[in-house]
Amino acid sequence: MTYSKSLLFLLIAACSAPSGNNAGVDAFSFQRSSMLSQISSSQNLKKARFSDELMTMEQNEEPCSRRDMFVKSAVATVSSTIISTFINPSIALAGAPPSKEELERIKVGHEQIVYLLDNFDKETTKCRENGGECKRDANSVRQYLGLRSTTDPLFQIEKVFVKAKYMDIDPDNIETFFEATEEWNTAVNMSNSMAFISQFAEYNPGGGKDEVLKYLEESKIQVILAEKALTKIMKCLEIS
Asked: Which of 90, 130, 222, 232 has the least CB density, counted as fewest CB within 10 Å?
């Protein structure tokens, strides 16, 4: 492209030179010859380099049939898989469905949530020893939802829900299952937020015991929604 522009410029310069003046034409002829010579030399150099590279590739190339290539590729793939499995055994279990114990956690967790709802006021009321003052406490809500301890049945239960996709779920229930898991996540997050706010509502500006009860009741509403979502999940996974 650079040479073409230069040639065009010289052509215009030569054509615009005054009649009878051969200086412009001579200059143009000289420049054109020089540029063509440079182009030819460059092309020859590229061809020589390409030929050298081609010869080098041919000299280093070893005879290899398609069968040999396939075998080498297969061996490399299998070796890589075996090494990865030994280094990280969890890779081999990446597509495993939830265990019987993990499914049991869902059942036990659901039973505990039902108990919480049936005894909400009692479970969210803490009294001091020896007949001391009683206060509402939302920590129990977070505990029953699996948000307090690794020993809680519903602790990180979302990971079990992810594994459930490897189960033989009825195709008619798949969409319901995923919708229920989303409903569960939303309800648990909202209930956790309301319970957390209620812990400090009494001491916030404009707060008091009424504010504690307000956010505690909001947390209970979300627990009800979480229980309904978990019931749907259990039905889809045929947990009874």
From this structure: 130
